[in-house]
Every structure is written in structure tokens, then in C-alpha cells.
């Protein structure tokens, strides 16, 4: 099903304030509480709202270092891709893994305490990933902008 502008306003608010009460949400989007609740339930059941999560502070949790790792595989055979994807999903320090079009086959977003911790992650996990031909790591010096909010406008 498609969504209308009111649904989009609800989604925009929920992306920024996931813990907002239904009463506050309905007031913010100018809709009755019961109609707002029904719309949120429909957006959830249709999969527009996938989950509700808490966004944690990486610095306070001791993993302030972000590293982007470009990985090129020896081949792109289905069994190699599947084995790689299953193995990389088991590494707790990897936050994201993207299959790419371009020079790298995959790009990983990895968090670490510092460069020594990343060296440990590299040695214990990344070098053991199946099918890897080449790997290049780039350390983020500073996060200029970061959001989890998708454009729904």
C-alpha cells in the first residue's frame, strides 16, 4: 500500500522521537489520538516501521573509533558471497556491511576503542573472513554528520 502525507509526517516524527506518546504524536501531526494510533499500527504491520531502537553513544561505550573497510573478494561466485556474508555478520564490531558496485565488493563500518583495538579486530576477525583477496581500511577522523532518519518528506 502507499502512504500519504499524514503518514509521512508521522514517520518523520517517529524517526526523531521514537519514544513520543501517542497523545503527543497525534497533537504534533494534528490528528485524533485514535486515528493516529490506527495509522501507526498500519505503518508497523505494513513494514514501514521496522523497529524501535535506542541509539547509543559510541564514545560513552568506549568505541569512539570508526573504520571503513573496503573488501575485494577473490571471486563473486554465489557460494563465496554467501560464506563471506554469513561470517561477517558474526563479528560484533561490524555495524554495517554493504555489497557494492564499484572498486570494492563490500564496505564494512567497524567500531573500535582505538587503533590497537582495530588491529585486534583485524587480526582476529577480518583476516579470517572467507574469500578475501584484498582489504583496505580508512579511519574516520571526525564524524561531520550522522543520522538514522530517512527522507520521508
From TrEMBL:
GO terms for molecular function: sequence-specific DNA binding. One of its GO terms (cellular component) is cytosol. Keywords: DNA-binding, Transcription, Transcription regulation. GO terms for biological process: regulation of DNA-templated transcription; response to amino acid. Residues 3-64 form the HTH asnC-type domain. Gene3D superfamilies: 3.30.70.920, Winged helix-like DNA-binding domain superfamily/Winged helix DNA-binding domain. InterPro entries: ArsR-like_HTH, AsnC-type_HTH_dom, Dimeric_a/b-barrel, Tscrpt_reg_AsnC-like, Tscrpt_reg_AsnC/Lrp_C, Tscrpt_reg_HTH_AsnC-type_CS, WH-like_DNA-bd_sf, WH_DNA-bd_sf. This is Leucine-responsive regulatory protein. It comes from Tritonibacter horizontis.
Amino acid at each position: 500500500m502507499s502512504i500519504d502525507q499524514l503518514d509521512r509526517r508521522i514517520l518523520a516524527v517517529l524517526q526523531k522521537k521514537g519514544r513520543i506518546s501517542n497523545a503527543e504524536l497525534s497533537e504534533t501531526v494534528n490528528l485524533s489520538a485514535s486515528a493516529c494510533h490506527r495509522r501507526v499500527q498500519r505503518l508497523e504491520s505494513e513494514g514501514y516501521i521496522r523497529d524501535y531502537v535506542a541509539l547509543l553513544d559510541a564514545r560513552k561505550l568506549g568505541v569512539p573509533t570508526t573504520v571503513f573497510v573496503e573488501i575485494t573478494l577473490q571471486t563473486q561466485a554465489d557460494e563465496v558471497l554467501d560464506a563471506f556474508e554469513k561470517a561477517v555478520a558474526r563479528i560484533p564490531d561490524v555495524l554495517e556491511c554493504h555489497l557494492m558496485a564499484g572498486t570494492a565488493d563490500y564496505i564494512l563500518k567497524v567500531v573500535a576503542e582505538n587503533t590497537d583495538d582495530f588491529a585486534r579486530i583485524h587480526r582476529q576477525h577480518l583476516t579470517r573472513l572467507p574469500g578475501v583477496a584484498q582489504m583496505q581500511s580508512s579511519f574516520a577522523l571526525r564524524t561531520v554528520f550522522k543520522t538514522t532518519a530517512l527522507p520521508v518528506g
